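Posting here for the record, re: magnesium ion.
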Amino acid sequence: MARSWRNFFRKTEEPEQETTQPAEEAEAPDSAGTDSTAEDVPTEEVRAQRETLQATKVLEEEADEEQADDEPVDETSEESLPEPDVVEETSDEEAAAEEQETRSGGWFGRLRTGLRRSRESVVGQLNAAIAEFRDTEDEEFWERVEEILISSDVGVKTTSKLVGELEQEALERNITSGEQLRALMIEHAERMLAGPVELDVSHKPTVILMVGVNGTGKTTTIGKLVNFLPGKAMLAAGDTFRAAAIEQLQRWGERVGAPVIARERGADSAAVAHDAVEAAKLDGADVLLIDTAGRLHTKVNLMAELEKVRRIIERQLPGAPHEVLLTVDATTGQNGLRQAKMFNEVVNLTGIILTKLDGTAKGGIALAIANEIGVPIKLISVGEQVGDLHPFDAREFAEALYGEL
Ligand SMILES: Nc1nc2c(ncn2[C@@H]2O[C@H](COP(=O)(O)OP(=O)(O)O)[C@@H](O)[C@H]2O)c(=O)[nH]1
Ligand SMILES: [Mg+2]
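Prediction output follows.
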């Protein structure tokens, strides 16, 4: 089954648990009574609030359409807005129908459109090579495949692994046609990309730290993600370097009705994180999303700052941050791969968000990241609208990357 928002948020401590039943012993509740149930299953009240919010969001977005050019606007109609969360009880048939709809008209269409440039560049060349494919022992053919993958930013290391395996498997399976070969490539890519995708929101509050180089899409991604999060969200403006960055997050917060914890420009971002964790605990927030700065020209300082932010969060709430997500701008190709390595050494990433897949032919970078970083890609983004952010699905991605033109 394709990954959707519905099975993206993990609300119990048990990994990969797909049940819609609340776990009996989720997190020890610090307050007795009705509050504790809100951790796993929203009460009627929470659900109603969320529905109202969703509706308000759509209205606001319509009204906002001509506003601010640095603040992306979701122009999708109500029915094309993706599922907000997991808990609604739907039958298997309903789920399957919805899934199908998403695949045909909704998200899969967006993904295919977003990856069009990547697909055209890879598949176009691949088709030409395949047209001359004679047999699996044709060394020239495999060299050509290697060149094509490297040119789509899969990178030398991952390409040689991929092609080596492909060559061997094509031999074993006695592959004779280009079509079979392409199916094998999709299968391979899927296997390489597969990973534990879920976002852990089982804690109360769950703290998610968003890190990444400037301009890679941290703030925008927080603004989009907050639309899908279950429960009560809170945001923290940890990028204190520019006033505009604080305002940008505040605008997103207003749109979805989530409080934004901020200090003045130039303030210590660890102090903002401290305030935010305290506020989230006090307010009973379910998920706290913390934005950070990402000035790479002060690399040493940046890493020291992130370490400090992390330490402060952990001190305020042992076990937190529960997720540390890195945004990687796909248009930067191999450079993005280097960023992922560097951030992972310092802050121990739990997931990667690959953004701007729409503007590039470098979609192959996803394979390099999956193969070389050892951190799962959890979300991808193919545009500036809320609906352009989606949980990552290895099969879907492989098909959109190497499938029919
Ligand atoms: N085309 C496209 N633009 C994006 C995507 N994600 C973010 N952006 C844009 O990239 C720019 C930088 O994003 P921002 O969130 O401010 O980056 P930050 O500096 O990491 O916080 C903004 O103009 C966003 O609208 C995406 O998936 N596709
Ligand atoms: Mg930002």
